[in-house]
Amino acid sequence: MAEASQPSGNGQPSDRQAIQAELDRRAVGQRLTPAQRRIAQCMIEHSAEIGFLSSMELAELANVSQPSVTRFAMALGFDGYLEMRRFLRSGVAGDETVPETETNRYQAAALAEATNLTELAQSLADEALVDQFGKALATSRPLAVLGLRASSGLAAQFCYFASKVHPDVRQIAGGGSLIEDQLEQCQAAGGRTLLAFMMPLYPRETVKALEFARHIGMSVALVSDASYANHDALANIFLKARVSSRLVFDSYSASAMLVSVLLDAMCNNMNGEARKRLDQIDRSSKRRKVFVS
Q: Membrane-crossing residues (predicted)?
């Protein structure tokens, strides 16, 4: 590749914004792999010269294999890398629309999460569904909570706070038959509801656990990504929150917000029991000086 044919610089804001917008548009509804996300980010960061790089050169910049670049182009709807490069050279890269402000990748990721939260706020207009969740969680004694792999943090967050007001919260952990043992124990003790968090990439062991819970007569209250389409076969009630894939690993701001919403809805359905328990905990923690402030 002749040196003279390459544009200089790291790309104008218009180039970066246009390429990012096009990649986002083509990736809607898809789950990009970490390698594909690195390729996408590399294309944005090298927007000025991206229309002139070979697939091998792009692979070296992104630190991935050359076939990964080809698969990425095909995942976006192109026949191959050459077609994607021609498109970038003649179409997107030539866009003259200059945005008023330029954002870096981290700002863009934060703004994407803000959009996800706005979408969640609109969906929460269905207060009846939220109340249905709250009633199911409040009345299940014990309450089983499941979150495996990427969803484990959401389950742990819910259980930490729920245990302050709910008399018997059981976080289901482990894998395989151990999960089934724990679900059977909850059901035998009177538990009627399994609250499950299932974020991408949707672990097979989570799907099996949900199927088993319904098989033994438990109701499944599922929180998952907005793109998950098969929830009717797994859950009795379902709330969705969009996950952001802007960075190497997913972020779950909307899902974390849903945890707080569900906790509040559960407390609202405990007929004053939650407030009494919180008051008791508050007095105990002050007496024992648990917190600095």
A: none
CA distance 8 to 24: 25
Distance CA 16, CA 92 (A): 9
Give backbone dihedrals phi and psi of 2, rounded to 5 degrees, phi first.
-70, 135
In tens, the pLDDT along 43-68 reads: 888 887 887 888 888 988 888 898 88
Is the pLDDT at 240 greater than 90, yes or no? Answer: yes
What is the C-alpha to C-alpha distance for residues 163 and 20, in angstroms, rounded to an integer?
Answer: 43
User: Is the dihedral angle over the CA atoms 251, 255, 261, 263 positive or is it negative?
Assistant: negative
Q: Looking at the predicted structure, is the pLDDT value of residue 105 above 80?
A: yes
Q: How far apart are the first and last CA of the chain?
A: 64
- Residue 83 phi/psi, 5° resolution? -65, -40
* Distance (Å, whole) CA 223 – CA 169: 17
User: Could you report the per-residue pLDDT of 249-262, keeping only the tens digit for each?
Assistant: 999 999 999 999 99
Out of 3.40.50.2300, 1.10.10.10, 3.40.50.300, 2.40.50.100, select the CATH number for domain 3-102. 1.10.10.10
Domain boundaries, the chain: 3-102, 111-288
Q: Which of 208, 209, 237 is nearest to 224 (CA)?
A: 237
pTM: 0.73
Other CB atoms closer than 10 Å to residue 139's CB: what's the count? 13
CATH topology classification for 111-288 = Rossmann fold (3.40.50)
